[in-house]
DNA sequence: GGGGAATATTCCTGTAAAGGAATATTTGGA
DNA sequence: TCCAAATATTCCTTTACAGGAATATTCCCC
């Protein structure tokens, strides 16, 4: 059995489950950007961009590198690897045919004498 | 280039980014359960369980099948497949070595005459 | 058809979090 | 040492949403 499933960090999901932060993540996919560049491309005001980046940073989704008075933000690989691992643990679910819910329930009914 | 990346449905992430709903999803991993069973196993009151299941259902994460006066909830494969596809689109990020941020920035600096 | 499970819905309240605006901080350069 | 650009932080207000408690609904069974 060895039924040890990876558990997903809720904070990662929460951080990603916000439209502007998701857009930031999509932007950073192609490489590091500064706060100003991010704010520009997304039509955000600088403070909001900074705030969202702080959330992403606090949750380990993003990495900062100071360069002069600019800060380059960059995606970290770990949270995506973790998400990948977690989703893969649902492989059985993903492979499942769609129309056999009834079969499943029939099985369950048999086991209902406990 | 063909740079068409899959975009992730925010609603799916929002639905999963709540502790009790995540626990429900983990529970359902092994097969369908009724509202009562879910509430029991998680120590939730029935109404809260129903409410969370409604959110999961509204977002296509879960499927319902009425059987007598009970309702069996079951994971749907689609959202997990979508999540899998999305995460895979970050393969470049996931593969990235950790310590070459400086190199990356050096590259960027060269391109900074536009 | 009435009663009792099992489940859904409604109303209320508290709280966390996002946006706006203003301000603080840091840093390099003259 | 002072200025300006880039970024972070604070305060305020509004809104979405989770939990609690009560109630409505649905459905089988006698």
UniProtKB/TrEMBL annotation, chains A, B:
Residues 1-95 form the HTH arsR-type domain. The keyword Oxidoreductase does not apply. One of its GO terms (molecular function) is DNA-binding transcription factor activity. InterPro entries: ArsR-like_HTH, HTH_ArsR_DNA-bd_dom, HTH_MetalResp_TranReg, WH-like_DNA-bd_sf, WH_DNA-bd_sf. It comes from the Bacteria. It holds the Pfam family HTH_20. Keywords: DNA-binding, Transcription, Transcription regulation. This is Transcriptional regulator.
